[in-house]
Amino acid sequence: MSITVDEISFVAGDTLIVNGISLAVEKGKVLGLLGPNGSGKSSLLRLICRLRKARSGVIRLGEDDISAISRAELARRVAFVEQQSTTETQLTVRDVVRLGRTPHRGLLNSWAADDDLRVDEALSRVDMRDRAMQLWQTLSGGERQRVHIARALAQSPSELLLDEPTNHLDIQHQLDILSLVSKLGITCIIALHDLNLAAMFCDSLAVLDKGKLVAAGAADTVLTEGLIGRVFGVRAHVERSSIHGRVHIQYRMS
User: Fold this and answer.
1) How many domains does the chain have?
2) Phi and psi, residue 182, nearest 5°
3) Rounded to an integer, what distance in angstroms lies between the CA atom of residue 65 and that of residue 70?
4) Is residue 99 part of a domain?
5) What are the percentages of helix, strand and coil residues in the chain, rounded to 5?
6) CATH code for position 67
7) Residue ranges making up the domain that contains 56
């Protein structure tokens, strides 16, 4: 396995946010992390990249416990795209994406041709190369999100974590970004709200509710009408799409 989470728990103050979750992601596969607001999705992603400290349990990248991996190595290996990220510094789009190369460069290392190549590739992948010299602050919310994904790709990670990466994107770019991520060939965990997008682009799904893992597996076994009703509080009809062959959910009026 590329990422293994074993009985991990996390507490904030007196509140148990992540409660004994265990899951695993195979190398090169995409796991969709689903659940209502407050279910623990974002906290779990932060635990995996060691931005939060677990109360108990173990997280492994390959065979390595993340607690034994140096900060520098972890930064080279795992890229994390958050829901929102902002700065008051006047940076161009290219400047932001160049930051993705930081973990691969020592204090004395000069900028290399390979760094430029990685940055150019990342910008092209998210369709932002023609905006490279534009100030980041002048971009729309969706464009900023695409730039942050490009920064993560420039990092050349072996594991990529994305927290609601499509929240600020129009429909075309939601499909473009998730299609891109699904074809990267690296291990990805994507926290999503849209169940249909998760079913379309993820190899497997994990559903959280109130900090606990309540279902995991292929979309057609996880996204049942019963589970959608219990966890998300909505009535749904689940069928297989005649267009893409994946599970498709239609929501019923109350």
Assistant:
1) 1
2) -65, -20
3) 11
4) no
5) 35, 30, 35
6) 3.40.50.300
7) 3-85+158-251
